[in-house]
User: Fold this.
Amino acid sequence: MNSNSNPIRLKSRPVHVAIIMDGNGRWANKHNLPRIEGHRRGIKAVKRILKAVRENDIPYLTLYAFSVENWNRPKEEIDALMNLLNDFLTDQLKELLRHKVRLRVIGRHQELPRHIQERLNEAEAKTAQFTRHTLALALNYGSRTEIIDAIKAVTRAVQDGEVDLNRFDYESLRPFLYTGEIPDPDLIIRTSGESRLSNFLMLQSAYSEIYFSPVLWPDFNEKTFQTALNEFGSRERRYGKTTDQLQNS
Ligand code: FPP
Assistant:
């Protein structure tokens, strides 16, 4: 897309944005509401950002929706989150089809409740042919479990003679990660003022620009998203090179 049709005129635009949607609980506390209401409002923010991502023609969006550590939350909150996820998937399938968005799940999805797995499998299968936009949902996701699962899969592939360790590098590792063919994120956004990655895309984020927003996730909107994109556009990504080298390349 050329700069005339780019709604926000950035120096450079991310191909892949990944978001740590944090602050639902604090938003609920602030408004004297139960935590689940914060998550419900979080879903509204998700829908706003899905639209903004389409409008900005960003090909890949990853959302950290449930981590392996989130199982430690009270059972009522986990059940409520799974119900919200179920409703979201039911409600969003027609939107994904309408806007030609491919759904991918990253994480140990086989450990999610059966009915959620069925919804995810259905949505993944029905949207598999789309190529312009991908929504990756990180569910029961953790970088450390991803790396452990990748090590096990690589070991099996070596034993089966499918992988030559002498020629093994990061590109060879990629297909063994949950993210598979999804490119590494250019921009990672974390909301709610926390400044850490919390076991999210730790390998894939090696050269990501990271943007910490003070806004609580339920309040995140098109404008705050645009602020993050503008900040990304102003950063210089050097990948270990000098500024002079980049200017001459
Ligand atoms: C962090 O807020 C958010 C989560 C653990 C879950 C994120 C889930 C949603 C936004 C809804 C489901 C998403 C989809 C895509 C269906 P927190 O509860 O940790 O907030 P706190 O740190 O303020 O307590």
Remarks:
- The chain has a mean pLDDT of 94.
